[in-house]
Amino acid sequence: MKRVKIIVNPSSGRQAAETRIDNISKMLLDDGYVVGKFTTSKKDDAMHETIKTCQEDWDFIIVSGGDGTVNEVAKGIALSKRKLPLAILSSGTVNDFATYLKLPTKSASFFEMIKAGKLIDVDLGRSGDDYFVNVAAGGLFTNVAYQVQAEAKAILGRLAYYLEGLREFATEGIEPIRMKFESKEYTNEEDVLLFLISNSSSIGGFKNIAPQAEVVDGLFDVLIIRNSDIAEIANIFFSLLRGEHINHPNVKYFKTEKITVSCEKKVDIDLDGEYGGVLPKTFEVIKQGLKIFVP
Predict the structure, then answer these.
(1) Catalytic: which of 49, 72, 164, 274?
(2) Residues 120-168: pLDDT tens digits?
(3) Domains of the chain and CATH, by start
(4) Known catalytic residue: 274?
């Protein structure tokens, strides 16, 4: 008899997510599983509950939420001696990691994935005491994800991010930031608009931002967009839709296990859509840091 803990962020997906969780819980119970449910109410609830769950007699965890909630659960697993397998039921505004892995969102398909029991070991990112499943980023628009209010995300979905991005673009304009990148593969100091340190290819709802990324290769894919004028930014954006932006002369793209990014200015860091502190930061891969259910 297997025991599963379901950790739910109630602000992600609202009614549709609640219905799916109820359906999956019933399927699991009818099949003989012991099911426990925990609902988050504030930041870090999911992380603390995950640590507690890993210390107790549970067999695996299901997390229902967006990338931020998945991040908290992954951090809880990383901080625990006992590494429980994780099943991700995406229900947030943008679920890049779940999208990349093509994880099922329908109740019956999700239950069948659990029953099949297929697991893969995926990489995890670490920056100091923080962790990230999908992406670390800094520069243009990277603070949008955690500036958008929860109510706006619930009502407008992904559109809320785009509207906030447009607002920031209109009020602050485009100002490059002098940053230094240090890694075995690439070291340079340059004026940049944006950098992304990615585990998967899907970021911010775009599926090809890091087109060569794999979550099982033990490497980050680093994307640096150098200072560009409006026309060049537009060109990079349209190339991005086809995954061809990495060939643009103002884009640097490479793979690495570890990279340090520093800057004299105060630059906020985004980790899986949540605030992750300020530069300087060192980012390193934890190879096979998570066990994930996949179809």
Answers:
(1) 274
(2) 999 999 999 999 999 998 886 555 454 545 554 444 344 444 445 545 5
(3) 3-117 (3.40.50.10330), 132-286 (2.60.200.40)
(4) yes
